[in-house]
Amino acid sequence: VYHYDRQDSNSMFKQMAPGFTEDQYRGLHCGQSGYSSGNVRSMNDNPSPEDLKLSEVLSSYWFNFASTGNPNGPGLPQWPSYDATPDAEVLLINNDGVKLSPLPSMSRMLVLDRIYDSRHKRPAKSAVKN
């Protein structure tokens, strides 16, 4: 599990959705895809040195996982398997780089888990009425 919370300098998103504040571009869905595919220039025509380094790290994780089933490799911060406990550490990807951290949104995820559980434990309503 990873948590992507990078405030992107991504020119593609800014062209598609102009007028937002810098913070509104933070952690966008699929914002990491150019980094993880090693194709950061497809999303940003002028990537910073930090963008290029992040792309190298994330694409290495994705390549390693696709090749071996394990994202870890030489020179990469260790990415542990997620154990689904409230204090589990995940890979946090933000403007400070890549590091291990408790999942920032765990409390919200637990609420969603409870809602899901409560909705799916109810007996199904019969479509036929007596």
Write the layout of secondary structure elements.
Elements: E1 2-5, H1 11-16, H2 33-36, H3 49-68, E2 89-94, E3 97-102, H4 106-120
Parallel strand pairs: 1-2
Antiparallel strand pairs: 2-3
- Biggest sheet, spatial arrangement of strands: 1-2-3
Proportion in helices:
25-40%
- Largest sheet, strands/sense/barrel: 3 strands, mixed
Contiguous runs where pLDDT drops below 50 for at least 5 residues:
none
Summing up helix and strand content along with how strands pair, one would put the structural category as alpha+beta
Number of helices: 4
Q: What does the model show?
A:
The chain is 35% helix and 12% strand. It has 130 residues and is α+β, with helices and mostly antiparallel strands. The longest helix has 20 residues, at 49-68. The chain starts with a strand and ends in a 10-residue tail after the last helix.
Quick synopsis:
With 130 residues, the chain is an alpha+beta fold.
Question: What key attributes describe this structure?
Answer:
130 residues, alpha+beta, 3-stranded mixed beta sheet
